[in-house]
Prior knowledge:
The structure holds 2 protein chains of 2 kinds. Chain A is mainly α. Chain A has helices at 12-55, 69-98, 107-129, 143-169, 174-195, 208-244. Chain A is built from 6 helices and no strands. The longest helix of chain B is centred in the middle third of the chain and has 23 residues, at 17-39. The radius of gyration of chain B is 19 Å and the shape is elongated. The termini of chain B are far apart.
Amino acid sequence: MSLSTSSKAPGFGALLLRGLLAGLIAGLLAGVFAYAFGEPKVDAAIALEEAAAHATGEPSHHADELVSRDGQRGGLFLATALYGAAMGGILATAYTLLRRRLRTPSNTRAALSLAGAALLGLVLVPYVKYPPNPPAVGDPATINQRTISYLAIVVIGLVAVWAAVVAKRTQPSEWRQAIAAVVGFLVVVVVGYALLPNISEVPATFPPDLLWSFRLASLGTQVVLWTALGLAYAALLSYSGRRQATQPERQSVTA
Amino acid sequence: MPKLTTAGQLSTPTVSPRLLVTALAVVALMLLVTYLVAFDQGAVSRSGMFLHELMHDGRHLLGVPCH
């Protein structure tokens, strides 16, 4: 390839720093969403858990708790901020390595596509197979198996997105590209869903509407995180682009 | 398909072996942070259990399996 390096291109460090910052912002925003919409559901589920423990005569969690409920509510922001920053770092690395393979002249479009791919592969594909559960749902004895299955479906989700891109690029015309992308994606997802074990550990007594609203809040948290991450990263990239690139030819071609 | 543009519009460094190694190290570090936030079950250490409890709500709401 004759793509010579530009002396103006920011290095990996600069791209990474922007990713970490974008991730921190996105994580905090996701934390705000989760605090507003998710915490009430977590509280309700914990109340059920405590009530069930009382009924069976088990010692309450309160006795030996390491972190108070208020501490856990604060820890929520720590968790989403750290998770967001880590995802931002990974997004920035993917951007650095894949930018030249994404066939678009627009940096914004490239950043948003990568974040969208992550939302699809890392969040939506796993969500359908293994929807998140509130406290009081789930058998502690199966946590290892559930974690492995969850990681497997995350990998399958990413492979499915990759398969969609590969399949798309084999086709000459746009409508055939679109069909090939969908077929490539679905083949991987369906095979993955079929191979991985089903997990259904929701107790019959757990209120269905609480389960539904918890899962919606969890989905919202992750959608907020990835949407904000994509937008913030694109914004920070264009900011850096504007500052160093005083070159006048701002390309307005949209792919 | 739009043509890949001239160098000035590409805003990433060229991918060299050195960059790949750095990138790999960064991803490993990011995954370690993700592990601590989302997957450390605290079976080994008390501080592990502390992290688990501290970030408990985030785990649930980020969709990761928890207890």
